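sorry for the late reply, my laptop died twice this morning and i had to redo everyting from scratch. anyway the thing you sent over, i finally got around to it. pasting the sequence first so we're on the same page, its 612 residues, then the predicted structure underneath. double check i copied it right bc i was rushing
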Amino acid sequence: MDENNRNLLIATGLSMLVMLVWLLLFPPTPTEELPLPEEATADSIDGAPVATTPQSGETAGTAGTPEPEAAAEAPRVVIETPNLVGSLSLLGGRFDDLRLAAYRESLEPGADMVRLLNPRSEAYPYYAVYGWAPAGGLAADAVPGPNTMWELAGGEVLTPETPVELTWDNGQGLIFHRIVSVDDEFMFTVEQTVENTSSSAVSLAPYGFVARHGTPDHRVLWIQHEGLVRMTDGELEEVKYSNMEDLDPAPGGGVMETMTGSSGGWIGFSDTYWMTNLIPEPGSPFTSTARYNENTGIYQAEILFPTLTVQPGETQEATGMFFAGAKEWEVLRSYQNDAGIERFLDTIDWGWFFFLTKPIFWVLHHIHELIGNMGWSIIILTVILKALVFPLAYRSYVSMARMRELQPEMEKLKEKAGDDREKLQKGMMELYKSNKVNPASGCVPILFQIPIFFSLYKVIINTIELRHAPWIGWIRDLSAPDPSSILNLFGLLPYAPPDPGSIIAIVSLGVLPIFLGVSMWLQQKLNPAPPDPTQRMIFAWMPWVFMFMLGSFASGLVLYWITNNTITFIQQYTIMRLHGHKPDVFGNIASTFRRKRAEEAVANADSKPKGK
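ok and here's the structure:
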């Protein structure tokens, strides 16, 4: 077998193996939709954590879930910021109605804003609650919880310029105040104070929790993390919704996992593009708990602050932050660097190859800032990546060119060795060594591209900067597959393309996947077809197999692959010319068709009945 073709066959086979594992073993699967949970009971996880003693870090669920009707009828405070629209319920002082002003559900005109938080009166409730947990014998009804009806003591509309103040008097000598403020991005600040006007000391602990009833009702790829995300003293933990049932059994039912931090962290739920997160003041101690109850289908992330003892006539306060919004890289970085929230950028799912994914996104982000078009930014990024690996690719191409020059000597070795394969292998190794040729060097560039390919795929799928990002013409969303279809002649026929989830969508190729197949096919034509019929068949099918495999991938990724193939073609063609070999691309294409016609003629001749 020709060594050049063997190397290319091995390298391409490895690439195909990775892609097949990707698509077949880990196919895109819809996230399981859980039924709406029934009303929570006194043992439900939908309640405040309880600080049993000032020294205890244990938490448990308590009663306190309002009826959906009560939640719907409760007074509300309007929330208006450049990025958030919604309202704050005075029942529990809960964040349960929030939409993202800058993001739409789809690209259709008039599409609704993305809905992040939902009250209990609507499908799939998703909300956050702050309160105080009793300790040291204090009665549960002496502290505000999810059922507490707060009074609006100051402010009318919550904006970045106008915070609101809530108050509640328990009638037993404790007066609670809560000041809620919000910035012009996605961060709320909750300042809680308790004033003790009674004659005895009380112990209680501030807390916050985020509760989610059921899971997101959209399709999630296995490469995307959606579920719990938590940082505790520099240690990142990600638990998918489907894996939360494997947590430790919890008192009173369900499962839970508790971690204690001493220097900072956060806990919440992360979707692909959106997130809710409870954050203590940087550097302050806290206890975070992840919970799931299969009976109610409620996922909960809790944060409990140290228990406070409030003497008569004394006032104590605690401050926490609540992030609810889009995982924009610039915004998260500013909270990490300016607000001191530890590793907040890691709420973005960077994946296994984070050491590549992070710098790749950083470069892509800054290119986009300069030119303002994400599609052209991907093309420029591909050029930069190819330039960085060019020295490696150059040595590989040169080695392949030298192997081509050694073909006459290799043929002589084959004639001398005959059927003695050991003698042939030994002679070939000596030939490679004396000419300083590495037969495996042709595989190196492709193997090196695999982690880059995965990292870029992670960037395109998981970073919100690519969501609904247009390129040219019909490519209006680089995070989605090419919407054009060969089945309606790319829009010339008055038929809609098949739904992306249907079986027929597999053959509904768009413009970009077709260009991808053609670019791979032309790259093959730099060299004559291998003489071995099996190799020739594999090489002939390979570009079109990849075309169908990548057809349903994000347009941005297919654009990267087309650009990569084009640059590789130019590099190989140039290097081959520099080494005295003139690739005859059109001649190789023509010889392919001539060979095919000759094979058909032979087949037809063999099929005819021979005369007697």
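Residues 3 and 439 are 7 Å apart (CA to CA).
thats about all i looked at so far, will dig more tmrw
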